[in-house]
Structures are given as C-alpha cells and as structure tokens.
Amino acid sequence: MDSQFQFDWQAAINSIPYLAKGIPYTLMISFGGLVIGFVLGIIFGLLSINKKWYLRWPATAYIEIFRGTPILVQVLFIFYGLPDLIGGPIDPITAGIAAIALNSGAYISEVVRGGVQSIDKGQSEAGLSLGLSRTQTFWSIIWPQAFRRMIPPLGNQGIVSIKDTSLFSVIGVGELVRQGQVYIANTFTAFEVYFVVAIMYLAITLSLSLILRLLERRGVASA
C-alpha cells in the first residue's frame, strides 16, 4: 500500500482561528482552578503538619485521595456523579475548574508542606527570641523563605494543570482539544489540527515557564 503523506500547511493555518476560540476556556479553567487550588494547598498543607490529629488526618485524607485518583475520574465524578447527589446539573466549565482546584490543591498541599518543613527550626526560635508570636514568626520569617523555595514546584504544577484541561473535552468543555475535535470532524485534517493544538499548548506552557523563571530570579535576588 503506497501512500505518501504531505503535511497540509494551509489546512493547519486555516484551523488556527477556530482553535484559538478554545484558548480562553483553557486559560480560564486552568488559572481559575489553580487560584482556588493554591488557597486549598496552603490550608491543607499547613493542616497536614499540624500537631492536632483531628486537623492533620482529614487534611492527609484529602491529599491522598486527590493525588491517588486520576483527574479524569475526578472530573467525570463531579460532572456526572454529583448531579445525582445535589439534584441538578453542573456546568462543564464549573466542573473543570472544580476538578483542577481539588486536584492541584492536593499536590500544592505537599509543596507547601515540604517548603515549610525545609526551613531550619532555628528560624522559628530566632523569631520567638525577638518577641514575635508564633503566628507572626511564621508569616514574617518562615513563610517568605518557604515560598521562594516553592516557586519551581508550583510552576510545574501550573504546567501540569494547563495540560490536564485537555482531558475535559470528554464533558464538552470547549477548550483547545474539544475545538480541535469539532474542526477535524468537518475537515478530516487530524494530523495538521492536532499539530497546531500541540503548538498552542507548548506556547502557553513555555510562556508560563518564562514568567516563573523571572519570578524565581527576582526571589533569589531579593533574598
């Protein structure tokens, strides 16, 4: 069977305006979910190292459940399963944001825990010796140092969450992959369209990586 494939550059270029419609959804779901996930990560990350077991155990359970199950299963559960419980439908975008938030929050919790525990205990003792309370010592001395160390893994999680949005086409979210699927159904140019989709994801993640490197350098310079 003799077949000579030729990349159709015109088809790839023609697909860009249609595919670009999915970028706002991709960014909205990923960054919206990450903002909420960062808040959840701080809360559950700090609770996971709390000395009180009744605070530590629920936080640990949340972290293990959402780190130990695929995000695709999580979003399917939220979109198809929860409506049976609450008695009403859930918007696909809402389901996507919730899945990113809960999933990234679990991973960020571990980043927060590791960052805080990486700071030498002498820092806390120094703050207390200056007359600061434990709360003031943590937020004024421990947290700024820990946060600088968290920037690289937080950036990695951001990139992972952006790529995770590609799975949400299964619930009808109009992000990049979903736009590509619809376009391919009408044009039968799968190779060219998915090539453009990949380039778009690469452009987004590389831009985020560049921003994070700049932030990391500023953090080191100000340390």
Automatic annotation (TrEMBL):
GO terms for cellular component: ATP-binding cassette (ABC) transporter complex. Residues 23-212 form the ABC transmembrane type-1 domain. GO terms for molecular function: transmembrane transporter activity. InterPro entries: AA_ABC_transptr_permease_3TM, ArtM/GltK/GlnP/TcyL/YhdX-like, MetI-like, MetI-like_sf. PROSITE patterns: ABC_TM1. The chain crosses the membrane at residues 25-49, 61-82, 193-215. The keyword Cell membrane applies. Keywords: Amino-acid transport, Cell membrane, Membrane, Transmembrane, Transmembrane helix, Transport. Its main location: membrane. Gene3D superfamilies: MetI-like. It is a multi-pass membrane protein. It is found in: Cell inner membrane; Cell membrane. One of its GO terms (biological process) is amino acid transport. Pfam families: BPD_transp_1 (PF00528). PANTHER family: GLUTAMINE TRANSPORT SYSTEM PERMEASE PROTEIN GLNP (PTHR30614:SF20), MEMBRANE COMPONENT OF AMINO ACID ABC TRANSPORTER (PTHR30614). Belongs to the binding-protein-dependent transport system permease family. HisMQ subfamily. Part of the binding-protein-dependent transport system for glutamine; probably responsible for the translocation of the substrate across the membrane. This is Putative glutamine transport system permease protein GlnP.
